Every structure is written in structure tokens, then in C-alpha cells.
Amino acid sequence: MSENRKQERRPGGGPGRGHRGMGAVEKAKDFKGSMRRLMKTLSPWRWQLRAAALLSALSAAITIFGPKVLGNATTEIFTGVMRKVQGTGSIDFAAIAKTLLLLMGLYLISTLFSHIMYRLGTDAGNKLARTMRQDIGEKIHRVPLGYYEKSTVGDVLSRVTNDVDSVAQHINTVFTEVLSGIATVIGVAVMMLTISPLLTLVVVLVVPLSTLLIGLIFKKSQKFFRAQQELLGDISGQVEESYAGHEVVQAFRQEEASVASFEEKSERLYNSNWKSQFLSGLMQPIMQVFSNLAYLLVVVLGAAQAAAGRIAVGDILAFIQYVRSFTQPLSQMAQVVGQVQTMAAAAERVFAFLDEEEEIEPENSPVIGEVVGRVCFEDLVFGYDPAKPVIKGFSVCVQPGQTCAIVGETGSGKTTLVKLLMRFYDPQGGSITLDGKDLRGFSRQEARKPFGMVLQDTWLFSGSIMENIRYGRPEATDEEVIQAAKHAHADHFIRALPGGYDMVINEEADNISAGQKQLLTIARAVLADKPLLILDEATSNVDTLTEKRIQDAMSFLMQGRTSFVIAHRLSTIKEADLILVMHDGNIQEMGSHDDLIAKGGRYKALYESQFEET
């Protein structure tokens, strides 16, 4: 069952896009360091890669003898025909058959080695990808929340998918093609030398020129390929955002602007595409020109030598085949260089995430045990940037069973206070205690165990409604889930949906309304039945009648529980035992609704402004 969080996106293609395009990998900043670490990560499967590389080299070495054996067969046919014409003999078909059977055997062995090599290399790459993904999956839960607040979701997903796949896919290619290419070039050079040192000198002088030109073109085209992939990502992101936010685009009459932005990106993509394809398309013709030049020189010089009796006819045929075998590995090696750079860059991104600073957990963390529910903030100081504190040193205690409402203007520190309470962050000064025990003395998992949460931003995964509610307490029975839904006033609409509790919420969670999603998250918190509750504007996405029902359900739910309620509509927290009025990171006022109204301070001004608006 996959879990998917619905992300807010802007329509159009401007900044605010949540992810980058796939495949846009640039050079590694620390190439040597990344490759060393990758080799270390590959150490459990080094025997597989070594065996794959060895088999690749053996396959190449065996294949090298093919043209020579075929040349011998050609020479035998040619000399046999000449003997028959001269009347001095006939064609030795038995010898030719043996030569061809030997050739077939060599190619079969080479094919077998290549198959085993591919299986070993692919298996090692897949195991590496699995290990990397497991490491990232475990790391995701150990990285502080602050990392995700400064990083896009798409970037993290790209490391798990694109970068890991890039490393795994290139491992087999790099390990096998490098050694195979080296073995082929050396072996072919040796075989050419045994046939004709003069012709070998011609090939060695001509062919590397094409390789040099191809390398220059390859380097020039890389920037266009990178730009092409980045623009593909931009266009894909804009299409996705425009589709997800098409109602907003139309409501604000931004269709023309969206189309213009799309056309501008498409034009840039077109320019990058044709330039990259043009330069890439030059490689093969250049290689063919120089190869044909080498063939021409080999044929002319070879024919002259054959006429002088210095070389056999079959050897000329074998030599021409060797010329092709000599140029292909050189061209492949130029491509492998780019693959190595891509692999190193992808590995560097994966390792950078795995090296992110982790949340520090106390050693031998105790079990939190039974919770009474007394929560105290003592001289609390916190800032996302320590030099710019958001919470500036306040103290307050919330007694067991009390409902504490937190109100204030946007940016006053309300949500930050809840994040500290849940240990999404730890304070830089002071402490938060639960029943007299500092929450930092427990592991984060233990510290969060007593809390139930309902947030303004709903979170549902792809699965049935029953499974989504049961997420609050996986061991709950169907009857308990239904009872929780009734307390949250969600049962009536759930039964009206196709499939009822078995209806599957799609990946985007857009086949139910925003208010219905909020009711399901409230039902999840009801089912969790925790001694402490955090309600972050839990009724913001529901209508007035549903809000009244939820308030009744929440009043029932909060009985006997210590509750923290962040509220923007102050009319919903009039019955709270304690109201904290926050301003500029401090508690400016605290007390009951009646007490704060009587004081005539900031709370009264906020309350009356909402009343006047109403």
C-alpha cells in the first residue's frame, strides 16, 4: 500500500515548482571521493563485478580470434580455387569445415561468457540499488524535520529513484565495457601487428583522429543534453501543475500566460534538442569517414602487399574486420567517460543525503509509561535560525485535562510551539516537560507516543477509508473504526460514498472533498485515543454545520485529556480552560475567555475584529 501526500502546487510554470526534471545530472563536485565511496559500497558484491569484468575481457579476447580464423578460411578457399584453376589440386572442404566449426565454437563460448557477465553485473547493480534505497528509507526517518522544510519533496524523491537507478544502470556498463574495451583494443592491435605492421601503423595514425574529434563533440554536446533534460523537467512540472490547478488558472484568467510560458519553454527545448541531436549526429558520420579512410588505405596498401606476396588475401579481409573492431571500443570508451561522470554525480547526491545530520537520540531511552498530562514550558527559547529566535523565553504550565488554546497573528509562533511539543525540533534554551520529565530524555518515538494530532493540512494515503482511519491504531477492529467515525460525525457521509468504508482514496486524494478529508483525520485521532491532543485549526476546511458537529465531538473527545488547540476563529475556543495569546514569540496574555475580554487587551481586539467581520 503506497502512501502519498497531496502536495500544493502553483499553476503555471514559475518558481514554486516542487521538483526538478528527471535525468538532469551534472558532474560530481568530488569525483574521486564519490567513486572511492561507491567502490566501498560495492564491496559486498565485488566478486560478482570482478567475475563479470573478467568474463567480459575473455569474451572480447575470444572474439578477437574470429576474424583471423575467418581470414584463414578465406585464404584456404582462395588458394584452393587457384589450385583448381591451375590444375594442381582442389579446395580442401574438410579443412574449411573444421575452421568454420572452430569459429562457431569461439562465438558460442563468447556469447555464453557475455550472458553470464550480463547476469552477474545486472544482479550486482540491482543489489546495490536495493541497499541504497533501504539506507535512504531508514535515513528519511532519522533526518530532522528542518531538512524537509528547506528541501523540495521532488528532490528527495529524485535521489531515491533517478539517482539510485542511474548508479545501478551504469555499474554494469562501466565495469564490463571499460575492461572489455581495453582488452579488445590491445588484442586487436596485437592481431593486426601479426598480420602487417605497416597496415597497423596506418590504422593507428588515422583512427585516433576520429576519436579525438568525437571526444570534442561529445564534450560540446553535453551542455545541450543537460539543458534538454532540465527543460523537459520544467515542461513536465508545468503540465502537472497546470493540470492540478486548472481551476485556479481559469479562475484568475491566466490561461494565456500559462500557454505563453509553456510555448517559451517549448521553444527553448526545441533549440536545445536540435543542437544536441545535430552534434550527436556528427559522431557516427565522422567515425564512418575515418573508418572508411582506414579501410581504403588498408585495401590499397593490402592489395599491393598481396600482389607482392607479402600478405595473404584472407589476412586482408581479417585486417579490415580488425579495423572495425579497433574503432568501436574507442568510441564506446568516450561514451563510458560520460557514463562514469553521470554515475559519480548521482552517487554523490545519494551519499550527500545519507550524510545529512541525524536527530540525536538519548542512549538507553526509558519508556514513557503512564501519562497524567501535565505539560510545562519553562524559559523556552527557539529559532529556526538560532540567531533569530521565534520563541523568546516564556514559561507556562498546562494542567492535566485542561484545554489550552493558542491564538495570535500569523507568524507569532503558534505552530512552532506545537512543533516543539512534538519534538519535531528541540529548543535551544529552556525545556518542555511532561509530568515533570524533560521530553528530551525520551526518544522521539516515545515522546510522541502520548500525542494525537489533527492538522490543518490533511494527510491521507492511497487506500480504503477503513485503512486510513485505522492508521491511528493499526490493531483496531472494524467496529472500533466505525465508532470513531461516528464520534467524528464522518459515518453518515462515509456510508453515502460508493463502497462505504471500503472505498479507495486515490493517490491525489481528490475523490473526496476537503471537509470530508478533515473529518477522516479527526476520526483517525479519535481512534488513536491518546492522553494528549493537538488540534491545529482542525475545523478550517468544513462548513458551519459540520464545524458545530465537530466541536461537539471534540468536546467529548477532549474530556479528561490535555489538549492544545491552535485556532484562528476565536469563537471556537471560548470554553477553553486556558488561552495563550502569542505575539512576537512571547505570551502577551493568558487566561480564560472572560478574563481576557475583561482585560481589554490584544485578545479582545482580535475577538472583536472577528465579530465585526462576522
Strand-helix topology:
Blueprint: H1 31-41, H2 46-86, H3 93-140, H4 145-150, H5 153-195, H6 197-244, H7 246-251, H8 255-307, H9 313-354, E1 375-382, E2 391-398, E3 403-408, H10 414-421, E4 429-434, E5 437-438, H11 444-448, E6 451-454, E7 463-464, H12 465-470, H13 478-487, H14 491-496, E8 504-505, H15 514-528, E9 532-536, H16 544-557, E10 562-566, E11 578-583, E12 586-591, H17 593-599, H18 602-613
Parallel strand pairs: 3-10, 3-11, 6-9, 9-10
Antiparallel strand pairs: 1-2, 1-4, 4-5, 7-8, 11-12
Helix pairs in contact: 1-9, 2-3, 2-5, 2-9, 3-5, 5-6, 5-9, 6-8, 6-9, 8-9, 13-15, 17-18
Give a short overview.
The protein is of the alpha/beta class. The chain has helices at residues 31-41, 46-86, 93-140, 145-150, 153-195, 197-244, 246-251, 255-307, 313-354, 414-421, 444-448, 465-470, 478-487, 491-496, 514-528, 544-557, 593-599, 602-613; strands at residues 375-382, 391-398, 403-408, 429-434, 437-438, 451-454, 463-464, 504-505, 532-536, 562-566, 578-583, 586-591.
Number of helices: 18
The level-1 CATH class of the largest domain: Mainly Alpha
- Compressed to H and E, one letter per element, the order equals HHHHHHHHHEEEHEEHEEHHHEHEHEEEHH
What is the helix fraction of residues, given as a range? 55-70%
Number of strands: 12
Mean of residue pLDDT values: 78
Assign the CATH architecture of the largest domain: Up-down Bundle
Assign the CATH superfamily of the largest domain.
Answer: ABC transporter type 1, transmembrane domain
Q: Strand order, main sheet: write it out.
A: 6-9-10-3-11-12
